[in-house]
Design goal:
- With about 240 residues, the protein is of the alpha/beta class.
- It has a single domain (about 5-230), classed as Metallo-beta-lactamase, Chain A.
- It has eight helices and 13 strands.
- It has helices at about 35-40, 55-60, 65-70, 75-85, 160-165, 170-180, 185-195, 215-225, and strands at about 5-10, 15-20, 25, 45-50, 75, 90, 100, 105-110, 120-125, 130-135, 150-155, 200-205, 230.
- The strands form two sheets. Strands 7-8-9-10-11-12-13 form a seven-stranded mixed beta sheet, with helices on one face. A six-stranded mixed beta sheet has the order 1-2-3-4-5-6.
- Helix 7 runs parallel beside helix 8 (about 215-225).
- The protein is globular.
- The mean pLDDT is about 95.
Length: about 240
């Protein structure tokens, strides 16, 4: 059984704790290590590794401190180089090549974001649970079978973004970047429809925009579409 604890999920910082009861992992380190420790009541001794998707500060700024806490950090070579993260515990991984951390077998896959070498992760444990983690991408070019848990970015709604641009609340330039760098509600729904959801137990919507999202609407629409339990990661 997988437990998911969101520690931070916004443009200010992203970090998530997951465990299958045997091996615990961090997904992203976009907040300070001391804040990760506090969020977990300083029960961090079981964390076996930290997966990082890309080099933007809200996903990696705590990575150096995580390394100093003797926790290996796994990311693409492009991400490690861009963020200047190094050391013997900085572990480069490649898309479509599996690696193992404790009871998890993990395969990274490429996603679409405005950085050097961004990745998503598919994690499978020995009990057969299968977790998908994908954030900061406007498109996922793969389809997955047998997923039990989905953690996916749902940053904005196209309708809300258009309304905010029309009213002057959001600059048109920001809209252009969002369209080519982040997952919107409409595309998340298309992605979910294209995948095998029969075994899915939970869907977590991550990294919601402060101004271009609506938590209640996002949760309702994804629940109605999938018939699954849907959670909004805290911001």
């Amino acid at each position: 059984m997988i437990q998911i604890i969101p520690l931070a999920s916004s443009s200010a910082g992203n970090a998530y704790y997951i465990t299958d009861g045997t091996t615990a992992l961090l997904l992203e380190a976009g907040i300070r290590w001391r804040d990760i420790q506090r969020a977990l009541d300083f029960k961090t001794q079981d964390i076996a590794g930290c997966l990082i998707t890309h080099e933007h500060g809200d996903h990696i700024k705590g990575a150096t401190e995580v390394l100093k806490a003797c926790i290996p950090v796994y990311a693409s070579q492009g991400t490690l180089d861009a963020a200047k993260v190094s050391g013997h515990r900085a572990k480069p991984v490649q898309a479509m090549k599996k690696f193992v951390i404790g009871t998890w077998t993990i395969m990274a896959f490429d996603v679409r974001h405005d950085v050097s070498e961004p990745l998503g992760f598919l994690l499978v444990n020995e009990a057969g649970d299968k977790l998908l983690f994908a954030t900061d991408t406007y498109y996922i070019p793969y389809r997955f079978e047998g997923l039990t848990h989905i953690m996916v970015e749902c940053n904005y709604s196209k309708r809300l973004l258009d309304e905010n641009v029309a009213s002057g609340k959001v600059p048109a330039l920001q809209k252009k970047r969002l369209l080519r760098s982040h997952f919107c509600l409409e595309n998340v729904k298309e992605f979910l429809k294209a995948n095998d959801l029969h075994q899915v137990q939970e869907i977590w919507l991550l990294h919601l925009s402060d101004s271009n999202s609506d938590e209640a609407m996002f949760k309702r629409e994804v629940q109605e579409l999938t018939g699954k339990l849907v959670y909004i990661a805290e911001r």
